[in-house]
Each structure stands twice: as structure tokens, then as C-alpha cells.
Fold this sequence. Notes:
9-stranded parallel β-sheet; two-stranded antiparallel ribbon; 42% helix
Amino acid sequence: MSLERLSLNTKTVNNWTLKEAVEGAAQAGLGAIGPWRDRVQEAGVTESAKMISDAGLRVSTLCRGGFLTAIDDDGLDDNRRALDEAAELGAPELVMVMGGIPDRDLIGARVRVSDRLADLVPYALERGVRIALEPLHPMFVADRAVISTLGQALAMAEPHPVEAVGVVVDTFHVWWDPDLEAQIKTAGERGRISSYQVCDWLVPMEADPLLSRGMMGDGVIDFATIGRWVEEAGYRGDVEVEIFNAAVWAADGDQVIGTMVERYRELIDAPGN
């Protein structure tokens, strides 16, 4: 069974350098890698692009930009740098997490995101990189993302060209949404699905909810159903595994990738899923 669509997000092997992650992904036969900016910046953008290309890997996404809600810093300069980095890496998508609430004004924070996104769209088009809006679970509204549902992300993307703004379907953040099937269908019909990121929702949760992103099959998410919806919506891009979990990070990276491959074959790319 081909692993051409399987992508390793570098957070999944958080203790590895980019070089180690690239080598591990290539050795395992994966088709792509989704680097975080910290790892790219450590290695240097030009060297990172060469390293990934020489290994025969694609870049599925670059994580991350965003955080556009602050009052005293519009975040535009850093996001333009992120778009530059994505373009040099050959990343088709720059994942953006929108930012939390700095001033108890949720409505105002969302307005700032919308306004600043509009400011970034011409630059994204110029650089040939699509901004991929990632809704996060509602428990992260206060500190990380004022956009919580795929529907909200689609509404924010809608005024902009499809080639400039898309949305991320991340199982950890959207699996609970009773409107998820309809929203995935709409995203597909509009050509807006930028990325499909997978990991599981662990029960019980960790003390830090951010670290409750587990290996597929270790939690409660129905990957067969969500994956079918994404497939029926017309998405044929990479499936990027992004795990935030202390136990996974402490494990041997090659073993983590090995388990990731097994679970991908069993739960996501299996016949009938």
C-alpha cells in the first residue's frame, strides 16, 4: 500500500532536528513532510528546501503563521516572512492559527483577523502560497484561535480567491462538530480544503489539553467516517500526521514513524475507509 500521500508533521517527532525528520520520513517511504517554522529556521530556509528536495519529499504544509488578533502588533510582517519561507520551501499551503483574545473582546478580535487576512491575501497570491485557515477546538478560543469551526473558517475564506485562502480539516479540532459532514462537503465544493491533518483525541485528556493529541487509534475519533467525508469532498492531497504528546515526543522517532505508518494503513488508508 502506497505511502505517497502520508506526511510527517515535524511536531510529531518534536525532539528531532529537521534533518532527522527528513531522513526518517524518507527512510520510511513517506511522500511528504510538514515542517514547522522553528525547525526550518534552525537549519536555514535555503538549506531546508535543498534537504527536503534531495530526500525526494514534497512539502505538504508549512506550520505556522497567523496570530492576527493582537492590538499592539498586527502580525503582518511575520506572516509575510512565513509566506516567503513557504514559497522558498515549495510549500503550497501556510497553515495559520488565528490567535486568541487579548482584551476580552471576541468580536473585535475576529474583526481584526478578517481585516488582517485581507491585507495578507495579495502577498500570498504574489508568492504562490495559499493561506490555510485552521479552526481550533473551542477550548482554545481564549488563547489560541478565535475561529473554532470549519464553518467559521469557510466564512472567513469566502471573500477571497480559492487559490489564496483555504481551510484545514484537523481531526483533533473538528471531530466533535455536529455539522462537520456538511461543512466538509461545502469546503470540497468550493475547492477550499487546503490540508487534512490527523491525530486522535485522548481520553482522559492530559493536564495540558494541547498535549492530548494522540496517535491515531489511541483515542475516540472515527477516522473512517471523517476520512470518507474528506474523500467524498474531492480532497486528494496529503494526509499529515501532527501529534502533540509528551509520551510520543519521548519515544524513539523511528518507532513513532513506524507506528504512524501502521495506523495510517489500518485506520485511514485501509480498503473500505
